[in-house]
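I had to read the description of the data format several times before I understood it. For illustration, here is how one protein appears when written out as sequence plus structure tokens:
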Amino acid sequence: MDRIAGAAHDMASQNAPIKAVKGWVVSLFVQAISSCSIEQDRMDAVAWLATAREFLGNDGWSTASKAKKIYALTDSRRLAKGVFRSVSQAYRSYKNADMPLAVKIAIPVTLSAGAILGGPSVGIAGFGSAIGMPILLVIFLGAAGITSVLEAVLSNSEARNYVSIVAYMIAKDEILRRSSHEMRKAMSEEIMSPRRQECRSGDSEVQTMLFRMNPYDFEKHVMSFFQDAGLLAWATKKSNDAGVDGFARHSNGLIVVQCKRNAEENGVGRPTIQQFKGVVEENSAWRGYIVTTSYFTDEAVKSASKNASVILIDRGKLLEWHRSGIDATQYN
């Protein structure tokens, strides 16, 4: 027992400096982004980090592949010249930072290209460069660390809110711009941030809560699961012929979501699936989710099975989301 306790203590002692290094790296990015004098630079940085977070959250890619894809996001805009340079300068000054000696000793080893990538720097600019160093730091932070950066930046009163970030990415991001003009218009009008409704645990309590929600709250609630999975996600108040209530950006493409807050006995039928499949195909969406509080008829299930991009979430699966979150295997 003493040996086990000692091993646990040693592990905690080894992890403490790394945890402190991550906290320090988060502060570097927050300070660099928040200090941008030009709002466009701040928006570029937030959008870049949001997209990088999606890449890092993709378990199907190796660390080296993620590094290459994140590097490909970077260009010579003011983002790289401003925020990235600021982060690099702050990193190089770590010896003068106010932190424990153990943390200072851990920084150069922990944040080396070899330690982060497990090998060569796979074409990333040299260690410590204006672009290469921040990319290595982003990979070191991982999806959870980037989330901490985004939360800190977006909580700043001087930063634009989440809705503005979504609107900006709709206009600038290649994945979101692949959809039709009508779809881009639908996804950008009356944007609503995802918001999870608080509820006691237990299927019956959750089900009661879902039926009591108004349609807009239900849509925001559903989209919160995509946001919690690390995706840029939002709902829209604007009613549109496309029948899409929510959107999410995944590194593999656009996700469209239709929400059906039906009574238990009011199943979703084949016509709804047929129409939605057309929306998915016409806009080259990567995935299309139909989420309902009821069930899907046999004809609806059969129709959806003919298109691998369409995913049906009935009441049972929705309750499972509340217990465990979105099934990551659906992203493969």
Remarks:
- The first helix runs from residue 2 to 34.
- The two ends are 42 Å apart (CA to CA).
- The chain is about 60% helix and 10% strand.
- The first strand starts at residue 191 and ends at 192.
